[in-house]
């Protein structure tokens, strides 16, 4: 049941640094909202002490119930602890939110997948024809390079040179990030959610389906259309940065805010666009330097059918493919 979490409630999970199962007991929460005379749980406000000796922090909550402008933390929601994660296992016995606590309903991670959908974007005839061809010829993506990078199999909507894709101002759906949110924290949160199984492709994962609508393509069904640009646009939008109303990864080479000096000056959360054999490319976010010269870590959607932290080679970057998010 989707019961509200309070101080003294618990979660179960893993502590990555110690490779061990842990229990975390919540020690703080919303200071002005009480449930059963205890502080109510909410993302970032709810912290706890884990049995591995580290502090835990709530990262997932209700898409439409907020305490002190933070999503309510509930049974079934997840949080992070020292590189690992936990799932809330106890909460109030008589305070429930979201459909009376139906344990079978899908959990929508944070507010990323519940952003206000954009008005539908009409594809040009060239894009429509190219996409139809991609759907019937997905084998062109199944080559060793794409398979190694985890971006094979998925047909994509490619760039149409006759169509100018202009970045549009994001709807300020999150009152806590007006003027640009913290992209590093947003990526960390997405990885925690991914570790909890919320972003794995299932054929019709509702969280992935929502990403398409967030950037103007509500008619895309299932989760087999390449969704790296949808993830990029959605996370930019939800964190109050400008985004492209496009499902074409290559559209972000023209995002309009190139990083001076390119990848050598990249910061965590910068946009990076790569060549993808057989298609227009792949877009993700810079996460940090790799273990050897010429490599970087990126976080992106549609990587190994999920959201992952992956290693990429700088040599695969598109020209002008390192862009810094612009506050809306």
Tell me what you see in this structure.
This protein has helices at 125-136, 144-149, 183-195, 206-214, 228-238; strands at 10-15, 20-28, 34-35, 38-39, 47-50, 55-58, 66-67, 70-71, 78-81, 84-88, 271-274, 282-289, 295-303, 306-313, 317-323. Mean pLDDT is 84; it is low at 99-109. It folds into 2 domains: 10-107, Tumour Suppressor Smad4 (Sandwich); 125-323, endopeptidase domain like (from Nostoc punctiforme) (endopeptidase fold (from Nostoc punctiforme)). With 328 residues, it is an alpha+beta fold. The radius of gyration is 20 Å and the shape is globular. The protein is 16% helix and 23% strand. Strand 13 (295-303) and strand 14 (306-313) form a beta hairpin. Helix 4 crosses helix 5. Strands 1-2-5-6-9-10 form a 6-stranded antiparallel β-barrel. Strands 14-13-12-11-15 form a 5-stranded antiparallel sheet.
Blueprint of the fold:
Blueprint: E1 10-15, E2 20-28, E3 34-35, E4 38-39, E5 47-50, E6 55-58, E7 66-67, E8 70-71, E9 78-81, E10 84-88, H1 125-136, H2 144-149, H3 183-195, H4 206-214, H5 228-238, E11 271-274, E12 282-289, E13 295-303, E14 306-313, E15 317-323
Antiparallel strand pairs: 1-2, 1-10, 2-5, 3-4, 5-6, 6-9, 7-8, 9-10, 11-12, 11-15, 12-13, 13-14
């Amino acid at each position: 049941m989707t019961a509200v979490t309070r101080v003294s409630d618990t979660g179960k999970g893993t502590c990555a640094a110690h490779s061990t199962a842990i229990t975390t007991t919540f020690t703080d929460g919303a200071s002005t909202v009480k449930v059963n005379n205890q502080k109510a749980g909410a993302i970032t406000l709810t912290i706890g002490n884990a049995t591995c000796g580290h502090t835990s922090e709530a990262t997932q909550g209700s898409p439409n119930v907020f305490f002190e402008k933070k999503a309510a933390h509930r049974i079934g929601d997840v949080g992070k602890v020292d590189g690992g994660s936990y799932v809330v296992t106890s909460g109030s016995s008589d305070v429930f939110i979201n459909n009376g606590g139906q344990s079978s309903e899908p959990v929508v991670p944070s507010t990323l997948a519940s952003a206000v959908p954009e008005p539908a974007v009409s594809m040009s005839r060239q894009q429509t024809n190219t996409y139809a061809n991609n759907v019937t010829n997905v084998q062109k993506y199944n080559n060793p390079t794409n398979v190694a990078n985890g971006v094979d199999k998925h047909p994509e909507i490619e760039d149409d040179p006759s169509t100018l894709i202009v970045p549009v101002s994001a709807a300020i759906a999150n009152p806590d990030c007006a003027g640009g949110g913290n992209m590093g924290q947003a990526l960390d949160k997405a990885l925690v959610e991914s570790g909890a199984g919320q972003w794995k492709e299932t054929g019709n994962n509702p969280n992935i389906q929502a990403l398409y609508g967030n950037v103007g393509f509500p008619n895309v069904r299932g989760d087999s259309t390449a969704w790296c640009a949808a993830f990029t646009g959605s996370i930019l939008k939800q964190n109050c940065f400008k985004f492209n109303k496009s499902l074409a990864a290559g559209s972000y080479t023209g995002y309009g805010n190139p990083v001076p000096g390119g990848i050598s000056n990249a910061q965590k959360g910068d946009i990076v666009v790569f060549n993808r054999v057989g298609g227009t490319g792949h877009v993700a976010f810079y996460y940090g330097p790799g273990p050897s010269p010429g490599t970087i870590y990126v976080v992106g959607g549609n990587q190994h059918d999920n959201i992952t932290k992956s290693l990429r080679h700088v040599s695969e970057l598109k020209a002008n493919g390192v862009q810094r998010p612009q506050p809306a």
